[in-house]
Each structure stands twice: as structure tokens, then as C-alpha cells.
Amino acid sequence: MLKKGMVNFMKFGWILANDEDWEERKETVKDALESSIPAVMVPKDDIEKVKELGNIKIISNDLDADIVVINKDEDLDILLNAKKLGKETGVYVPIESKEDEEYASDVSKYDYIDYIILEGKDWTIIPLENLIADLFNENVKIVSVANSIEDAKTAYEILEKGVDGVLLIPNDTNDVKDFSRLIEKMNSEKLKLDYAVIKKVEPVGSGDRVCIDTCSMMELGEGMLIGSYSRGLFLVHSETVENPYVATRPFRVNAGPVHAYILCPGNRTRYLSELKAGDSVLIVDKEGMTREGIVGRVKIEKRPLMLIEAEYNGDIIRTILQNAETIRLVGEDGKPISVVDLKEGDKVLIKADENARHFGMAIKETIIEK
């Protein structure tokens, strides 16, 4: 089984709806739904009422919950039974003493416990760092209870690695929205981009071209990393540039032919032909900052194509794009440059990768692409 130290896990966040009145808890749940928070923690009497509000995971001390969580010192057999029902499981541990820390560490090592939820009563006595270090190579995910966005940010960043998740007790609607933005920012990776020098631009006939329409609005400087070779992906700009021919489509990247690779979250590549509605893709800006985008639609149409060939550190990399004025790469000045204006000697942004790819995953292997 994979250890946490071997894999880059995405940070996640949950909301604790602990208001005294159901009507107030209901508003918190609705805020979480509207902010795409994946799960809420509620009393067991709220489970059916939350299900009526929308599709969101429910965390509660009951076998009807999606994530069954018991309190410290409750019978662990409850979680064994939950596992048999296909549920996720967790233990909620308030840390008030060294004994509490030891208990959290011990129960986290049971293979039927998915989450250890830690409420720090006094982190100056029992630092969260101890448990992060102790459980780094265990399969359990560490969740810290936070009372503010600042506390949540600190928990995500402790010991550079930080906790896997945060259970936020929000003060108001703005806290929930800010929390959602914080999670997106924490999961945003900065990629190293560099410039390759254009060597050849020539028409190559017609082929099946893929347009990716996302559920996000992109801005100038944003696009997706696409190419014929995994070792060199070109930053293909989104259709956000005003032009006299067609209206802008800021949700779209005209990506290239069906065979091309696209970089997706988790440093995985996929073929453009594989993408479908609901899939995740990586939106990248000219500085290398990334965010996740959801595919809303993929359009495959026969269009005239153009070969783009560039040199990077003595290596030739290539991609193929539609031969049209509205398709752009990103030039040396960070501005979009149309493929019909590309010429030998121009510099364009790429992401180089020395790894080969096997089923989209980076591996250390020699593969020849030409």
C-alpha cells in the first residue's frame, strides 16, 4: 500500500455545522454546498435533513453517515462495522494532554481508520507537529479543527507538509467562501516553465481536432499544457483574446488533435481523445501557477492542422494545432501569439519533463518520441 510520504495528496476541507438551532445549521450546510466544500459534520439527527439539501458527504457519529466518526474512547468496533458497510471512518480526539496525543497516534495506525480529527485545546503544550511527524508514513489522514481561516492556513502549512485536511468551524458565510478559496490556493502548484525556440511551422493537412470547454472562465495568460511529446508540452492559450473574427470563448482551449497529451492534476497526462464532461484538467498561467478546471464539454471536429516544431536544450519537440488565427501559444513577452504569426526564431513557453510516461504517470524510463 502507498505511504503518505510517497505521494502528493491534495489538501481538503470540511465544515463543522455546530450551531444550536437547525435553521442556523441548515444555512451553514447550504453555504458549504454553494462553495463546493465536499463534506459537513453534523449531529446524527440532521443526517436525513442534510440529504434533502443537496449532494454532500455527511460526517456524523452514526452508521447512516458517509464518514462515520466516533469520539475518543468510544468502541472502535463501530468503525469496523462501518468499514464492512463501505463507509469511511474517523476518530475525533480533543488533545488536552500527552495521553491524548498518544491515544491519537495509536488509533491512527489501525488500517480501518481513515481519518484522525484533532481538536487542539492547547497546542503550546501538545504541538500538532508531533503527530504530523509521527504519522507521516501512515495511511491515516490528519484533520485539524480550526476556528478561523488563519488557523486553517497555519495547519495546512505546519512542518511544510501540514495536515491533510481541516475541519473549519465558520463564523459566517464569508468564512466558508474564504475557506474554499484557501483550499484551492493550497492545492495550486507552481510549475517551472521555460522557453523553446520555434524551428518550423507548416500546414500538415486535416485531422480530428479537440476543443476543451471548461466550467471555468479563464483570463489572459491562462491556458493548458499540451503537446505531441510528454517531454515537452506547449502552453496553448485560452480563447480569451479579442479578435475581429469570432467572439471570445474564455472557457475554451482549442487544444489540438486527438493524439496529443494534456497535463492534468496530479502530474498526470491524458490523451485529448480521452477527455469527457466531468473530467479534471489543469489550467496554467504564464507564471506557471495552476488551478483545477472541470471539463464541461469536449468538441472533436475535422479541421486544418499545423505542425509546430521547437528546440529546447538541443532537443526537438513538436505539437500540432488547428491552423487558425484564434489559436495561440504564449510568446517571450508573456503575451499570446497566434500560430499563423509564428516564425522561426520566436520563443514560446513550454513545460519540459525528463520523465517518460506510462499510462499518464511519470516514470524513469527511456522512451523515444519523434
Automatic annotation (TrEMBL):
Residue ranges of domain 3-dehydroquinate synthase C-terminal in the record: 196-370
Keyword Magnesium applies: no
Protein EC: 1.4.1.24
Reactions catalysed according to its record: 2-amino-2,3,7-trideoxy-D-lyxo-hept-6-ulosonate + NAD(+) + H2O = 3-dehydroquinate + NH4(+) + NADH + H(+)
One GO BP: aromatic amino acid family biosynthetic process
Enzyme class: oxidoreductase
Domain 3-dehydroquinate synthase N-terminal: 10-182
Keyword field: Amino-acid biosynthesis, Aromatic amino acid biosynthesis, NAD, Oxidoreductase
Keyword NAD listed: yes
Residues making up the signal peptide according to the UniProt record: none
GO terms, molecular function: 3-dehydroquinate synthase activity; dehydroquinate synthase activity; NAD binding
Main function: Catalyzes the oxidative deamination and cyclization of 2-amino-3,7-dideoxy-D-threo-hept-6-ulosonic acid (ADH) to yield 3-dehydroquinate (DHQ), which is fed into the canonical shikimic pathway of aromatic amino acid biosynthesis.
Stated family: Belongs to the archaeal-type DHQ synthase family.
Name assigned to this protein: 3-dehydroquinate synthase
Protein source organism: Methanothermococcus okinawensis (strain DSM 14208 / JCM 11175 / IH1)
Biological classification of the source: Archaea, Methanobacteriati, Methanobacteriota, Methanomada group, Methanococci
